[in-house]
Amino acid sequence: MKNFLMTFCVVIFLAGCGSTVPLGDVPVTDATPKAVSVLGADANSAGAKGNGVTPVDLGAGSTSAIAPSEPRVVFFDYDSYVIKPEFQSVIAAHARFIKAQLVRKVAIEGHTDETGGREYNLALGQKRADAVRDALAILGVPQSQMESVSFGKEKPAVAGNDEAAFSKNRRAEIRYQ
Amino acid sequence: MFALFTQTSFAQFRIEVTGVGLTQIPVTVAPFRGQDTLNQKISEIVLADLERSGQFRSVKTPVGAFDEAIKPDLSALRQVGADALASGSIIKLADGRFDVRFRLWDVVKGQDLGGQSFMVASSDLRLAAHRVADYIYEKLTGDKGIFSTRIAYVTKAAQRYQLWVADADGENSQSALASPEPIISPAWSPDGNQLAYVSFESRKPVVYVHNVSSGKRRLIANFKGSNSAPAWSPDGKTLAVTLSRDGGSQLFLLNASGGEPRRLIQSSSIDTEPVFSPDGQSIYFVSDRGGSPQIYRVLINGQGVERVTFTGNYNISPAMSSDGRWMAYISRVGGAFKLHVMELAGGGSKAITETSADESPSFSPNGKLLVYATQQQGREALMTSTLDGKVKARLNGQTGDIREPDWGPFYK
Questions:
Q1: Residue B106: exposed, middle, or buried by beta-carbon count in 10 A (0-12, 13-18, 19+)?
Q2: Hey, is the C-beta of A172 within 8 angstroms of any chain B C-beta?
Q3: Domain with A128 in it: what CATH number?
Q4: Which of residues 69-88 of A touch B (CB under 8 A)?
Q5: For B297-351, how does the pLDDT look when each residue is reduced to its tens digit (9 = 90+)?
Q6: ipTM value
Q7: What's the CATH code, domain B150-407?
């Protein structure tokens, strides 16, 4: 009982303590369109080898779509990717417009309401975007001019968590680039 | 049938304990000598870590003098019901660093369980405290502690998205990326140096691999259509991703160094949210091939697709424990999205939360805790939970909406 052994006292030097992260420019190897700069004073407060994190700031958003004269949003029913008859005329008008301008590129952006998982909603939004792309293709728009992408539930058109908001968020937007 | 409900308040966060039949080790961590004058109270951080694990119960330290060099009064400790005591000290060194020392005692057996000493900068005092907690956890449970690991998460505030790297208790967060466009699905590389994630900064989802200490980013998947759901193989050499470039959302494998994607499986359904099994031999994923989203498993060569979930009509976001024994996932039950844990060998599964908008589960590297996103009082929150759901803690973090947690590997 009394034979306490003041045995070992392991000395561990935590890696990277006391060193600082340089606050110079951060190298970026991709074609990010905006300037990359370093933010915040946190960067020099932690060890570089251990848990240092160098922040990257992509700046403020500046993307804006060119406003078309036609309505450019197709709405969908709950859990559906079927283009409703009332949107056929919208799609036909865009098909004529795109075919008249062979250099024009068009993005079709699919969206969902906020219920469910982020990645699964990304796949659901992709199905809506693909449905509109395929409808445009049937009307003769070349695939090379179109790209269908999804934002899932990340960019709701309307805030709120009721069906009134959800029905406005289940959509595909046609955006000219 | 009754349920215990207790709350312990700490500066760091609130821990909720529900349910009966918990076997928790009663432990006391004496205030470290010299911590009074510091902002970081080492003993409180250590205790909060241990309590959050669900395997320890805090016992009030009896009156007395404690540090790593003083043999404690064991009878007083037995009287307050403590099975173990950690005591230590902090000394500020001439160069501005701190010497943190501690010793652990088994009160029941009257044994010295050893100790450690750390020389740290003031910014690493929290890390030192997490290391103390890791030592205590491993000595008393036999499992490796996860308190000095890191988690990544995403916040959204005023149309600004930020990817953060924080301690496993949510504190000490550092910004890795700020963007005006959404960031989702961060995934730590197995070496803990890089994060793969989906960024919408180019007005479509593309996958980046980001070295968190240098800030250097590589665009790893930017094909026509959507690029999403990155998952690392256990050896860190391969990423599984979801691409729509050849039509539909389909699974592909990519070398982590980049290059041409190889198709994993081909289907006419949605296939997404891949995650590698710990042995790297199979991939769990979500598919609606049966009419509703369910979790499936496929061998790494694309053969032998098997369905894994059979209950409910919406099962998504699989996560695997490092021992391959458990799968966590989100299941819709009566309109609520609830975190479930399934024992893969037995097939039994159960919901472990009382919330209704759970998302993005991720296991701690020792497989004993989960971190996940949910909503509380209409605000997004990050929680940790034991696998049985009995001990939960809400992590502090940045203000604003907080989501998409991913638990990093053991500290190297």
A1: middle
A2: no
A3: 3.30.1330.60
A4: none
A5: 999 999 999 999 999 999 999 999 999 999 999 999 999 999 999 999 987 899 9
A6: 0.93
A7: 2.120.10.30
